[in-house]
Amino acid sequence: MTKTAAKQADALLHDLFPICRSITGGGLRRTFDLLRQVTPFDLHEVPSGTACYDWTVPDEWNVRDAFVADPGGRRVIDFRQNNLHLVNYSEPFEGRLTFDELRPHLFTLPDLPDAIPYRTSYYRRMWGFCLTQKQFDALDREAAYHIRVDTTLAPGSLTYGEAALAGTSGQEFLVSTYACHPSLGNDNLSGIVLWTLLLRELRQKKLRHPYRFVIVPETIGALAWLAQNEARAKSLAGGFVLSTVAGPGKFGYKQSFRGDARVDRAARLAFRERGLDFIEYPFDVNGSDERQYSSPAFRIPVGTICKDKYYEYPYYHTSLDNLEFISAEALAQTLDLYLLAIEKLEQERDDVECDSHFRSDCHIATQIPHKSQHEQERIYRSKMPCGEPMLGKRGLYPAIGGSIKQAAASARHAERRYEVQDERSLYGSELDAIRWLMFHGDGQTSLSAIAEQTGLPVRQLTEVAEKLVGHGLLEEL
Predict the structure, then answer these.
(1) Distance between CA 299 and CA 233 in Å, rounded?
(2) 60-154: CATH homologous superfamily?
């Protein structure tokens, strides 16, 4: 099966890699159309302007062309050559600019001079281009350049896919992936190909558990699905997020927030049965949609079997994460592990209760706990427990996305476009502190307990918690 799966994966990877995907638009729909030729699933459209908890579905984005041309008409930066050249969600623009006028709209990675960075601006209207440092260094500083960004931003909809596989146990598991990244091989073209092949394989089996397959644009898509399926989501027994599954390095497993949930045990058993050495990563709120599914209102234990995990490889969010970096054979090996992990879930005894029955920390406290005179613990409760809050509209997140936790974007080269009033970088521990505080905003977990788990200083957590109180995101109990 592995050789057959590798051949099928290779064809899909090559067909899908050139498509310019985003969180909305024709590229996303074209991707779904190709995947549905392999195995069917339903499509759902969520109109622009729809509230998804603290977020709102943005206008739909589509792109026809984009370039920067020199005075002779030669395209020195060309979307048609690589769709990563255009900052994803760039607004329309056409004009002639000097180099100095153009420079603020250009993004490079000096520490990885042959790579085009991947950058986004989903929720802030701007336009920009990404290029290699070598291309940037070759630009004529005295020239005037013709810029064209032929895109549309208009009311439309966000598209996501869903399929339900029937089972008899009544304990449903989630299998989710994100399909919004453009020409990036491991993150996350590999995940959407594996998701499709896994769905097709499981369709051929008689299953004891039901499985809910969801393919969404990252963050906003997961929040849209949760908002439309809140009751179902709160009853899920666990799940997997399929991401970065075809790299050349070692296998890895990112634990669920529990670390000992049924999905965690199943994944470890799969690695053991195959005799594979692997890196086990603790749960981290920085990552993919597991932080939405595991947020205080839902607390779904979600794990990730991976191969070159996001953040851990130098080509992450760059043009060097391409079809030469990944392999269909590695993807097929990871598919085998997921099938085996699901087999372990299927074989579990009937008297093992659903993990959701043990989520003692999944209910937001409704009563303020009594504090004795000697009790100094500080405890906070999230005022927005359904998924993560939208930090960008509060000036708590970089306006340009794509470089968070990116090794190639060192502190001295990271883009400093923040909508914040202070000069402290949100690329490091402050953003970590914000996310951990919101994740643990269950009305039960103290700052000292968060500090012990994360390694962040209590003093910093206290300062950030007070900032979040000021933004209406937390309240102290």
Answers:
(1) 9
(2) Domain of unknown function DUF2172 (3.50.30.90)
